[in-house]
Amino acid sequence: MRYISTRGQAPALNFEDVLLAGLASDGGLYVPENLPRFTVEEIASWADLPYHELAFRVMRPFVAGSIADADFKKILEETYGVFAHKAVAPLRQLDTNEWVLELFHGPTLAFKDFALQLLGRLLDHVLAKRNERVVIMGATSGDTGSAAIEGCKACDNVDIFIMHPHNRVSEVQRRQMTTILGDNIHNIAIEGNFDDCQEMVKASFADQGFLKGTRLVAVNSINWARIMAQIVYYFHAALQLGGPARSVAFSVPTGNFGDIFAGYLARNMGLPISQLIVATNRNDILHRFMSGNQYVKETLHPTLSPSMDIMVSSNFERLLFDLHGRNGAAIASLMETFKQGGGFSVEQDRWTEARKLFDSLAVSDEQTCETIAQVYQECGELLDPHTAIGVRAARECRRSLSIPMVTLGTAHPVKFPEAVEKAGIDAVPALPPHLADLFQREERCTVLANDLKTVQQFVAAHGNRGKPL
Ligand SMILES: *Cc1c(COP(=O)(O)O)cnc(C)c1O
């Protein structure tokens, strides 16, 4: 499988190189040159497979030529073996023909484990083969950091540096990062905000001299391997609900458009998906596009669903690429307009094409709490605020009551106790057994000034299993 850039000017890469790449050299994102397509009969034959075997069938074409079948099978069995539920991604019923796909049974209790547990193992495999070490730098406002650290903690050839804004992540989220101890794990609390952290990561990718030749790898959702891993659970859910003989609809709590883009790909690979709902919080750039063909940046509002607090959606470029007939020059020019501070609209027929599949809704904090309370009363299910936004949008935007509607349950409610409390529910959820002693564990973290040179010096001084590069 070869991968090409959405802006058309970067060299095509194979899977191994795309895994180790961040942005393409032309500023674009990598996508598969040709998407594999499965027949309905083929998909139907996977109905009874355990999750890791389904994952092998769905993802095999993407890694073909880079990772041997036997190795990939073993990696997938290990990856999904660490999940705390035997079904890996179980479905919970909320109402007639309405479901939540629970994607929070991984080590850090959010769906990001599906991709980052795999990414860590793939990196280890590829780097061992190449006899190469890399450094990962990432910024997090919460969920990504812990999932990335959990995914990479056992990687012999990776040193991971995760920056979070000092005193601005929840205690559960902080402890999920800082209590993972290892000489290749480096938590940095920056005296600044999330954007400061992200800017320093971007600046480090742009000028890597401080790394003395060591490669820098990205773990945010611009990394293709993360999207790839998320395609699988759309197949898994549909197969549990009578697919592919019948269509299924999905509602996806959305920030950077990575998770829902995976659903779009699943559909293009042959899975009958009749509707994809983009569910956002008040930070609603995607809802404004889907409802009114306006892609315009606005100020950031902190909400009760912080993992969806974004101003721009980086993966949206991947959808725009398809909507524009995969014309890289057109995307480069749209993105340049956007960078200059302008928003954009796309031509009417392209927007209409998108709306055949996508609907959207922006949900306020108040409505989020209302939905948490409502669902708790209706069936005793306690939703986290992100999932609640998905359920709200599923109920308001649903096109057909006879098509199963699945909301992606992106996080466990224990990670976001503030929203549960605001919803008026006093049943505080308990931490699952593997995290029960989280508040007693030793923490390790370095507080650094909001200064690029200071951070880069720290990375250079510790990037080789705690020793200098
Ligand atoms: C990251 C995250 C999202 C948003 O996913 P995207 O792929 O960025 O759209 C939603 N919910 C939770 C809990 C998350 O951690």
Structure description:
This protein is α/β, with parallel strands linked by helices and 469 residues long. The chain has a domain at 87-108 and 224-422: Rossmann fold. Helix content is 42%, strand content 15%. A 6-stranded mixed beta sheet has the order 4-5-13-10-11-12, sandwiched between helices. Strands 9-6-7-8-14 form a 5-stranded parallel beta sheet, with helices on both faces. The protein has a 3-stranded antiparallel beta sheet with strand order 2-1-3. Helix 10 links the parallel strand 10 (248-253) and strand 11. Helix 3 (51-63) packs across helix 9, helix 5 packs parallel to helix 6 and helix 5 (112-130) crosses helix 9. The radius of gyration is 21 Å and the shape is globular. It binds pyridoxal-5'-phosphate.
Overall number of strands: 14
Give, in spatial order, the strands making up the sheet with the most strands. 4-5-13-10-11-12
Mean pLDDT: 95
Which second-level CATH architecture of the domain at 87-108 and 224-422 applies?
3-Layer(aba) Sandwich
The biggest beta sheet reads: 6 strands, mixed
Question: Unreliable segments (pLDDT under 50, ≥5 consecutive)?
Answer: none
Number of separate helices: 18
Strand content: 5-15%
CATH class of the domain at 87-108 and 224-422: Alpha Beta
Characterize the overall form: globular
Structure ligands: pyridoxal-5'-phosphate
The N- and C-terminal alpha carbons lie at a distance of: 33 Å
Helical fraction equals 40-55%
CATH topology of the domain at 87-108 and 224-422: Rossmann fold
Based on CA atoms alone, the radius of gyration comes out at 21 Å
Class from helix and strand fractions: alpha/beta
